[in-house]
Amino acid sequence: MAEKSAEVIKKLMSLGVMATINQAIDADTAQIIVEEMGHKWKRVADSDVEDILKNSDDSSPEKQLPRAPVVTVMGHVDHGKTSLLDALRETNVVAKEAGGITQHIGAYQIEVDGNKKITFIDTPGHEAFSEMRARGAKVTDIVVLVVAANDGIMPQTIEAIRHAQAAEVPIVVAINKIDLPGADPMKVKTELLQHGIAVEEMGGECLCAEVSAKKRINIEKLLEAILLQAEILDLRANPNCKATGTVIEAKMEKGRGSVATLLVQQGTLQIGDIIIAGKEWGHVRAMFNEHGQKIQSATPATPVEVLGLQGTPAAGDNFNVVESESQAKEITNYRIQKERDAKLVKSAKSAMEQMLDKIKSGEIKHLPIVIKADVQGSIEAIEGTLNKLSTDEVSVQILHSAVGPISESDVTLAKASHAFIIGFNVRAIPQARDMARRDGIDIRYYSIIYDVADDVKKGLEGMLSPELKEKIIGYAEIRNVFNITGVGKVAGCMVTEGLVKRGAKVRLLRDNVVIHDGNLGQLKRFKDDVKEVKDGYECGMSFENYNDIQVGDFIECYEIETIAAKL
Q1: 198, burial (CB in 10 Å: exposed 0-12, middle 13-18, buried 19+)
Q2: Which one of 80, 89, 235, 453 is at 20 to 30 Å from 431 when CA atoms are compared?
Q3: What are the CA-CA distances from residue 269 to residues 70, 74, 130, 415 (Å)?
Q4: 224 burial class (0-12, 13-18, 19+ CB within 10 angstroms)?
């Protein structure tokens, strides 16, 4: 305002606000001061830094041009999604996958009929990747639902249908493996009706193609169906504005730094652009297509690998191109601060809630874990799977999860929290290995997600309190009661059922009502101490610290078995 600070402080004092020159005051007070001193004011918020991103998206209809459809391939594990993509791309991805399971989202663009392009996103089929598949459905225009003709509708097929329906995306059904014996495409089509999908043959709207990925049967028919569906949708985007889109995958690579797979949705991404993706920013240093060839620019619906980001963004984050570095830093700093504030609120709240929960449940047990993986998508999948294993009594506590090799700081964290480390398709650096060996930290390496879940489940089961089960081993009837000096009352008994053991627990029953529950003191036959007395024999028994026994009472003898608990 170009006013002297002393004047401003005087004004504040007159309002009853005692503030020094370095102090922050609330916006309402500041507004009153500005008005009092005869200036004009304009209120701004921290979140205004993100307004630039909203204004940059120019989506007026006349500037929109046709674009390639983005197709997500979904379906149950082992129904041939990747093989089908191979048939479309004439390449082989299956051989490179661990255990034959797709564990990452891949994005590829293929060209059909000369110049028509289709972008494919391959989502993993295993149920742990539910969140990754949900992400696949968010950026997609068409879902290709792959169902094996010999297997029919499976749990993940239903899940894929739900994702597609929730995202309101049209579905093209590809009935695969029609060359196999036992293949019944008609059965698949009828089963689909139960889940709200009616193919054209059945009078519905869903396009359907019966294919065989291995034998390359009817692949053109499937492509025709996809292009026909894309034509109906009339997909358009403006290639002449600043690029925006979604991060499909992000990972750290040795010698290349942070590598992000981006799908451009509007505008054209050029080399040299400054981009922000979630809480990370950077210059586009290089761009590669799915074959690893360098490209200069990426138009809408093109998937590209980008180098140059400062860190790895989370898969599913939006990315935007901004004018300058200062703008990028401002926006990312605001987002980091926002997340930090949200975490503080969450941790403050959960600390209180945890305390109440602990009082209720009598202390919950945690299994602390540190997760390191090769890509962000795998981390999400592992976290999702492990969190599902938690119960009211035991829970998985993920202390830290990140992309990259296992470092010394991970080992330090694990040591401090008595955690174990999961390395998914990554290894520990030598220094971390030595440190783990020295400190006795357990590092486990995996390449298939089922194994992670199984091992953690075993760990949690070990923490559960064992179940205690009572096993009745015998009954005895009291025929006589003797008073012995220095010992107290001793019951002369006949074992009527099973056996009576020394060291077992006993109950005294009078008219079938339990009147005492305790331990057996002595067990004798004649004058000798014995270990056990079987059915039909007589014996003498005394109770520990209990003397009220009468003729005609029954003694029930039982043992407590401990059974290891299962989740």
Answers
A1: middle
A2: 453
A3: 17, 28, 30, 44
A4: middle
Domains and CATH numbers, the chain: 5-43 (no CATH), 47-60+239-360 (2.40.30.10), 68-234 (3.40.50.300), 364-463 (3.40.50.10050), 467-563 (2.40.30.10)
**Residue 536 pLDDT grade (very low, low, confident, very high; cuts 50, 70, 90):** very high
pLDDT over 80 at 162, yes or no:
no
Given pLDDT bands bounded at 50, 70 and 90, which one contains residue 127? very low
Helix (H, G, I), strand (E, B) or coil at 85: helix
Structure tokens at 45: 């918020």
DSSP letters of 180-219?
STT--HHHHHHHHHTTT--BGGGTSSBEEEE-BTTTTBSH
d(CA 166, CA 147): 19
State the pLDDT at residue 240: 85
Residue type, 254: K
Quickly count: other Cβ atoms within 10 Å of residue 304's Cβ: 23
- Pairwise CA distance, residues 224 & 206, whole Å: 13
Q: Could you give the count of Cα atoms lying within 13 Å of 374 in the half-sphere of its Cβ?
A: 15
Amino acid at 478: I
Please give the average per-residue pLDDT across 202-220, as a whole number: 83
Predicted TM-score (pTM) of this structure: 0.62
Tokens for 543?
A: 């109770």
Tens of pLDDT, residue by residue over 328-382, are: 888 888 888 888 887 777 656 554 565 556 545 555 577 889 999 999 888 988 9
